[in-house]
Structure formats: C-alpha cells, structure tokens
Design goal:
It contains 5 helices and no strands. It has helices spanning 14-19, 28-42, 46-54, 58-61, 64-86. Helix 2 (28-42) packs parallel to helix 5. The two termini are 14 Å apart.
C-alpha cells in the first residue's frame, strides 16, 4: 500500500493562484511554476518541484503561494525521510 504524499493542494488551490488572492498578483509564468511544483509533488518528484520553485524571482519566491508550496515540499521530504528510517 502506497503512503499518501502531502501535496501543495493541501495548502493551496489553483483558484488562489489564478485570482492572486494573496498579497499582490503573481505573473502567469510564476503561477504556472508554482502549479507545476504542485504537480511534480503529486508525482513524487520532489527535486523537480524544487527546481520549479527555485526558478522563481525573489518577489515571487516570497509570495504566500510559493511559501506554502515550499512548506509542502518540506513536508514531503520529511515524510519520505521518515519512511526510509522506518524501513
């Protein structure tokens, strides 16, 4: 049985990205990178998700949507690390 990997969607909805509901608007490119990180996490590809987030500008990197995405990445890494230790 495969353990569920936490994802960005736990903390972030695509509607939040589209509406720019948080502080300030994200450009479409930045919003797509954050959403892309979400999809990489769902596929279990943490490194790819980090690459997407790493390509954001400083302003976008500090946007609340990007911060939530980074938190989801960290949760995934922690969960995977715990799974390895338990084996």
């Amino acid at each position: 049985m495969q353990e569920r990997v936490p994802s960005v969607s736990d903390d972030l909805s695509a509607q939040d990205l589209e509406r720019g509901r948080c502080e300030g608007q994200l450009s479409l490119g930045h919003a797509l990178r954050i959403q892309s990180a979400h999809y990489w996490l769902e596929l279990g590809e943490v490194n790819q998700a980090l690459l997407e987030l790493g390509a954001l500008s400083t302003v976008a990197f500090n946007h609340p949507s990007a911060v939530r995405a980074r938190v989801a990445v960290l949760r995934t890494v922690r969960t995977q690390g715990e799974a390895i230790v338990q084996q």
